[in-house]
Amino acid sequence: MKKKAICLILAILIIIPCLQIEAFQKEADIQANINDEMLAAVNVDEATPTEPTQVDNTQNQTSSAATEAENKEMNEASSQTDSVTAGTQNPVINTENKTGIGQVDVSILSALLLEKSVHFTVSLTGQEVKSIDLPGDSDAGLQTVQQGVSFENLEPGDYVLTVTAPGFAKYTQEISVGNQAYFIKLMTGFVDGYDYVNGPHPGVLLIGDVNKDGVVDDSDKTMLIDAIDSGFVNDSADLNGDGEVNLIDLEKFAKGYQMEPVCATLEVGVPANAVNVKCDSSVTSVQGDLNSLMTNEGGVVALSPAKGGDISGSNPVSLDFDFSQNKESLVGGVTINTANDNAIRSMEAVVTYEDANGKEQKVTVPLEEGIHFLLENENIKATQEGNGAINIDFGTQIAVKKVTFLIKGMKKNATLAEISKVEFLNGMENRIPEPALDIPQNVTAKPENKKFTLTWDPCVNVTGYEVLIQFEGEEELIYTKGNILNASSFKGDKFVNGKEYTVQVRSVNGTWRSKYSDVGKVVMKTDKLPEPPDYLKVTGTYKAIKASWKKMEDTDSYNLYYREVGASTFTKIEGIEPNSYTIPELKDKTTYEVYVTGVNELGEGKPSLTGVAETTDLEPVQMPKYKLINYAEEGKVSEHIINAFYTNGGMVNSPLDTEGKTAWGTVDNNPYSHFLLNSWDSGGYNPLGVNGVTYEFDEPYKLQNIALSEVLEQSPAYGYVRVRYWDENGKAVEINRMGIQRKVSGNHAYYVIRLPEAITAKKIQFGVSRVVASGTITFSEVYFYHYDSIEDDIMALYEDDLHTVLRSDVTQATIDELRNRINTPDEVSGEYHPDKEKLERELKTAEDILNSVLSNSVQIHNTIKTADVNRGFGGLNAWQPLGITAAAGEEITVYVGHNTKRTGDNTNLQLVATQYHAEAASMFKVVATLKVGRNDITIPKLSSIAAEAGGALYVQYTGNNANDRYAVRVSGGVSVPILDLYQVTDRSEQLARAEQYIKELQSYIGQIEAKHNEAHKGSANASVNRYDYEAANCILGASDILLDKMLLSLPAQQILTGTGGNAETLVNSMDAMEEMLDLFYQHKGLNNTATEAKDRIPLGHLNIRYQRMFAGAFMYASGNHIGIEWNETKGMVSGKSVQTDENGKHISGQYFGWGIAHEIGHCINQGSYAVAEITNNYFSLLAQARDNNTSVRFKYENVYDKVTSGTKGVAPNVFTQLAMYWQLHLAYDNGYNFKTYENYEEQLANLFFARVDTYSRTPAKAPAPGEIALSLSGDKDQVLMRLSCAAAEKNVLEFFERWGKTPDEETIAYAEQFEKETRAIYYANDESRVYRLENASTGSSLGVNGDVEAVGSNTTAVVNANSANQVDITLSSDNKDILGYEIVRCTISGGEIEKEVVGFTTQSTFTDYVTTMNNRVVTYEITVIDHYLNRSAVKTLSPLKIEHKGNIDKTNWTVSASNLKDTSNVVVDDEDKEDTCGSSTEAPIKSAIDNDVNTVYTGVASENAEVIIEFNQYHTVTGLEYKVNQGTPIQDYTIYVRGADGNWAEAASGVFGASKVVYFGKNGNIAAYNTTAVKLVIKNQSGKEIAISELDVFGITGDNVEFTNTAENPSIGELESDFVYDDKGNAIPAGSIIFTGSYKGNPAYNVVVLYDQDGNIVAANDKAEHIILANVPDTGNIQDVSDGKWVYWIAPNSENQAKITSVRAELYRVDDALTNEGQRLVSDSYFVEMPSVLPKITLTQNSGN
Q1: CA count, 13 A, side-chain hemisphere, 1625
Q2: Quick one: how far is CA 732 from the chain centroid?
Q3: Longest Cα pair distance anywhere in the chain, in angstroms?
Q4: pLDDT of amino acid 461
């Protein structure tokens, strides 16, 4: 099966080469006459767009005879000195009697991506064998520099070139060598863009020779497939050199399989031996061999100024080529190649030659970056290709005597000109200058903070651009119509400052794409100081403090500040690059304050929160000695221990344990001797076995507590312990795994093992483990304690596990007796019981019960639980408040009761400790899984910031048993008021509980500061005792409100303030919160009436908490909670329920603000399609929308701009992006915004996103009418599109495509099984949905078929009189249901109508700004869209032609005036004001660029008065138009353009006197400048007022085609007499039907095609032909634009004539004149009626007809 599959793939792949070498056929005969009175003509045999042609490989079978015939034909063509024929040509050098100077240059360029280098052997008959090594792409990337060899001093004769390499077929080519140089270029494969049949092309080296026989055939295929099957790596089969033999090699093989060799077109030029190359050493220093510049083997020659310094106009380098030894050399042009990406910026070529009369002539050819020179001799052209190569075409062959290159400037390395090769060609036909490929130039990025603006020169003859952005292996392609892109995100995420992104731009015209521009790099930088670092954590160690914090955006380094608490100044540590630091050399046992700041290039930001930590010392921890059994002197074995040993591990630094496996060092009162096991577990977690340490006493002892210390405390802490002991009878007893308690003494920790009950042991073994699998096991001292019954006696006072009921015999005397025992110290140690404080608290509890004042326990809800199904979103927790806040480090006791479990049984309850007013990263910790009965807990410290540490306590239920009944009571901490409204539905009960809660709050808040001073300030707990009372940070302020779907954890004081102490306000607000959440869950398809748990409301709660904000946050959603700050907390208890009618239409009320719904949205976003900051806003919009267009956060004008823009990718604004989701809700939901449904099925039927989220949770539920199941594979866009089709049960892909999404094949397949949505749902708005609902009974008057006429007769489109690229459309309709109008711009291409939606408006006017085309005929189609989103019949308006002078779009322009005193002003419209405190004005000069000639700028000029127009991007400019329709015109002027160096260069000067167009240039040459600004200087009018109505700047105009139809010269008629159009006698026969017109363009790159009224090519079935004619201008004109004529004719008596009623012309431009590569439509004409009687027309060479 595997081999069969490979063969099938091969069958597909072998088609590829055929496709790659499809050629465009164009039989062209380009004639150019250097006599100014003659016409240049291009004769095109078939006047149709070129079609791909299959290559006939037999044509490439090269023979000597064929080559000679070809050379003969070319030589004959080259002898015509008065014209040049386009095609393959082999010009000659007249070198009579010169022998032995022949030269063959062979170069190879990579066309394949290969991982390995390839060694090519190159041989030529009778010559030394040479080699070319082509580097692999892993070494050098895809090769753009060709590798080559040269064979020189060849005698005339026939030679055979042979090229071989491993894996490649043998290449041979016969060459007839004369006294010339022959350049053969080879490539390792076929390359798009070459015509391998008729045009010049490289030779092809075919890959795929697996069996090394020199050919690529079936035997190679078999061998390769066998190698793939076997998996054996065969070097010869590993074609791409990646070390594997796989399908990649098969794909490479397919590129050469069944292909015949294609030989290279010969380029012929001057051999190196015919030229003497030299430099003037006084001017130029040379590194390298000058004489090798004209071969492939010379390497790079470096030229530098002899006097040093940069190369410049005053310090040039020169290079001379002397042809005196070959006086009759005929040269048609020269190519100069540079190296190391250092192109020539400025140079002159001085050419000395003899003319036809033998007279010596000299011509200077300049080349300057950014300037296009038109020389007096227009046959000579100098161009520079994208790779820096310079081509100078002499226009004909001339007898060159000398050529001097004077290089005046380089682009990169200004001190060095590096020349790699120079070729003098006898003719440039095979080196046609690179045409205008419309590759965007001067791509410039302006980086900002997390965004950038990309600009480039506008291209002509294109309809838009594609921008490719790449970053870390990913890429995004964005379409834009204009030559600017404002980019703010990459693949949906924000850009990252400081990271390098790459950008490239290419032009687009229909399906045509240009090549990409050069790669540009963008590094965005912040525009603000760093935010304060978040999540500072400081930890004390020995004489040091470890600090860590969040790595912050836009931060280059950090500064850390520290000081002792109480000190006046901080010490500063600068330049910390990582986000952590250890402060060394501090005092021990000292408390320090620490904060951190961020630093970037703008400076130092604000400080973080301050952290507090205490350094430690090396003193051993002081464990309690109360009732200690094993006292010891330091270094001595302790009392009563007769044996101590281990099996696994070892003793360290223990003098008592030098032999055997004794563990005396753990009971020797020496803190440094210790036991060590290099594992995280010594039998505490896993079975004890022989692990751990065993101790034997001198006699049995009754004990319950054991303490142990580490030599150095580790993290993680110990978590588990297992114990085995032997009683007085030697019986072994196992105690199962249990927890171990960590305690702190001073600033050191120790651990206590408390056995479940007292035991009598003669011997005891225990093992401990870390809480997680990390660290080692150590203990330095182990204490055993005599059993003291005082604790058990106190606990025995109670009858229940919750300690809420006393035994019946307990009296005050009983309690007093126990209290007396607590206050009695140990006789030996003098210490009190280590848990004295806790035991006193227990006695106080008993006393409270005795006096009936004990608080109630908390009943746990078993329906709030962590055990829940996955619904595709998180953000919830299952916490239930206990009404206790506890300080960090405080020991509390949690009592748990259960309806069936016994004391000591494990439970499904976990205790959660939190930090009050915490940062998100340090808010909570699950402290313990509780047992039934007593649980002693030490509250952990979660934060190290300088504020009280501690917070509210919660439990979470992890079980799933409906019969579980738990109650919890906490002894310790401070009781705080809480409100439990969970599942309380009775209104009176809700109010009663709320009233009680408010009373408790009022009482509690009045005492809170006193409680702080008593419980915190007066305690020994450093976590709280150092801080004065502060309402915002005192942990006693915590309070909770538990609802059905929400837990509010807010400051008690703010709850009271927000409610105003009113219980009804509180209940109303809680109702509003629950109703809002119910609305949100409704739109998620969640309802408790649903059958499946996935479709029911979650069992956990959303939790809004009072938290600290991190950098840049107002609110946030993180993990299992939503964080808000102090000022926002009171708003959570003052919301109002929304009142609606029965259909959900808003009447009154207001849910909570946008922000809190936004954060809730983050938590409940459906993960399969969620887009952060977008989809979560859907819920914000739900909470606030009022069924009108003004209540939404976005503007519908922006929505309509996006859905009619045709752009790919998301809208630039997040709120506009939100509208896409909102429109689906508007289009498919059957009620108003607040409509909810009791029944799940009804909910699903009426809410679009309820279905979307349901199908996301359970794809199998989605409809599949075509039996194509819903799949959630692919990115989020694909998932959303499929889910939406399922939810709508319509194919809604057009909707998403309008929004810039691109469906993949799987999405299209799924969508196509549904009926296509015909409504224009992308125009839906809130008010249209209301109209649809309120008029549902009448329905749409347009119907659903789109055939009802509704566009009014007064609808018109006209070109704006003042702006030729602006079309003003007036709209009208009498339809009563109208929502708006869709405007479609139509053009015709290839006879086919192409449509582009350009806008949608709800107004009666619309303006279409046409910025991406020129010289095109457009028509507009107008469609009425009604409120039901149905379409009317289309109305087509009269055609218009967009024609302008290349006007540059002014969108990004700014303008300023200097030395002009304004006498006019511009008042800002009220709607544009940002400051409403008075009228606002702008600079009056702005009216000079506002596209309105009726707004006139006036000002009084001073000396040097000037107006500067900033484009804010590069443009190629050719002229300026000054308009004045009132006031005093400018007279004398000078116009400047700004250069790349910032200096101004004069472009034109003269006198205006009135409105005038000025083209740039001087000294007889017309120039185009690449610039970012133009300056107009007003001269000689000081003290006078001048006026400017409008200023326009011109770029390059596009090509244009017209019919020139006048009464005197009709454009269509019958040719009266033969017209001979070239010197070969080719003629248009009399009687032909001819069509004539004018064009602007380039005759070498333009093709005219005529179409009839039906879109058919005129006379496509007959012999239709055309010629393009061009007058050679007397003076220079803008390059690439010339006024010319075209003639299109049909042979006499054509059968097609009668079918033609009207015709139109299309003008095409191509990138390659020989291959027609890159063909695209650039202009067309209006239709012209065919005359009923054809007039007679006579054509002459010197007239229009």
Answers
A1: 0
A2: 67
A3: 141
A4: 66
Question: Are the beta carbons of 1091 and 856 closer than 8 angstroms?
Answer: no
Q: Is pLDDT of 712 > 90?
A: no
Q: How many CA atoms lie within 13 A of 1255 on its CB side?
A: 27
Q: Hey, what amino acid is at 1736?
A: K
Cα torsion 132, 137, 139, 144 to 10°: value is 60
Task: Enter the DSSP assignment of 327.
Answer: T
For residues 1692 and 1383, is the Cβ–Cβ distance under 8 A?
A: no
State the pLDDT at residue 376.
53
The size of the chain, in residues, is 1745
- Residue 64 has a pLDDT of 36
Percent of the chain with pLDDT over 70: 88
pLDDT, tens digit, 9 for 90 and up, residues 1362-1415: 778 889 999 999 999 999 999 999 999 888 898 999 999 999 999 998 877 888
Residue from 350, 205, 332 nearest 263 by CA: 205
Cβ proximity of 658 and 865 under 8 Å: no
* Torsion of the alpha carbons at 1485, 1486, 1489 and 1495, rounded to the nearest 10: -80
pLDDT of 1293 > 70? The answer is: yes
> What is the distance between the alpha carbons of residues 1164 and 1256, in angstroms, rounded to a whole number?
13
As a whole number of angstroms, the distance between CA 1545 and CA 1206 comes to 40
Lowest mean pLDDT among 471-480, 539-548, 1512-1521: 1512-1521
Q: What are the backbone angles phi and psi of residue 1649, rounded to the nearest 5°?
A: -130, 140
Q: Where are the beta strands (DSSP E) in 45-189?
A: 52-53, 102-109, 118-124, 130-134, 147-154, 157-165, 167-177, 181-187
Check residues 498 and 15 and name the one with the higher pLDDT: 498
Angle at 409 between CA 403 and CA 414, to 5 degrees: 130
Provide the whole-model pTM: 0.67
DSSP-derived secondary structure for 1077-1102: HHHHHHHTT--TT-SSGGGSPPSSBE
**Phi then psi for 617, rounded to 5 degrees?**
-120, 180
Nearest residue to 896 via CA among 843, 840, 970: 970
**Token pair for residue 452?**
């950038």
Sequence-ordered list of residues with C-beta below 8 angstroms from that of 816, at least 6 positions apart, any chain: none
Residue with tokens 């965005």: 524
pLDDT digits (tens, 9 = 90+) for 293-313: 888 876 788 999 999 999 998
Cis previous bond, 716, omega within 30? yes
Strand partners, 365: 349
In the block, tokens 């405390």 appear at: 713
> pLDDT by residue (tens digit) across 558-572?
999 999 999 999 999
The three-point CA angle 202-205-211 to 5° equals 170
Give the separation between CA 1239 and CA 952, rounded to whole angstroms.
38
How far is the C-alpha of 86 from the C-alpha of 356, rounded, in Å?
23
**Residues in contact with 1119: Cβ distance below 8 Å, sequence separation at least 6, in sequence order:** 874, 875, 920
Angstrom distance (rounded) from CA 163 to CA 121: 6
Closest by CA to 1273, choosing from 1231, 1309, 1320, 1248, is: 1309
- Contact between residue 1027 and residue 1009 where contact means Cβ atoms under 8 Å apart: no
To 5 degrees, how large is the angle CA 1156–CA 1162–CA 1168?
155
Give the best-scoring range by mean pLDDT among 188-192, 570-574, 1209-1213.
570-574
Pairing of strands 1736-1737, 1612-1615: parallel
8 A C-beta contact, residue 338 and residue 416: no
